[in-house]
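Here is one chain, start to finish.
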Amino acid sequence: MQILKRVYDWLAVADAPQKSDVIFVLAGRECRKHCALQMFDEGWASMLLLSVGRFEVRRFSDFMLPLPTDLLSLAASTAPERRHYFVALRAGDVQVQWIPLRRGGTWSEILAFSQWLRERESVRSGIIVTSGFHLRRVRWCCRCLISDGIKLTFVAVPAETPNFDRECWWQNALARKLVLLELAKVPLYPLLRAVHSLES
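Its structure:
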């Protein structure tokens, strides 16, 4: 089973968190947002940027945000397949921005994040929060899309559930599916990058 642990470790290339200007959490598993909110509360950054996908909009109000945000009402006038938002929180302020996504969810999210950074020159460092098994692909996207002048730290959500632990991920059907799917996606992303370059 040691090789299966090494497979997970190869994907889950995480850093220790460092104080930064912004915490950015990718859409997807709910535990990612809970982890990012906790880090925000602990003062790891003065700004929190939440990427919220279409299937998260309805339950977004369940998150214990410092400021109220009625994202469901804001999304009501947008077609479901186009519902993706960045929700930015900082002291006393919350802003919601619609994000146009293209093919390749993670690639498109990081592309949108890179554009968000370019519009805010004062933001020079960030913590990226996502699932451990997602980190290698996220790192690759960031290397391709985000300026070297932005210092990034990549943090894995700790202990998502016992089923997603590196010690036994292969014993749970959902964890096995997600990890194996991630392994399949990693070599495809250079092709996705080429497609996006042609479309740009």
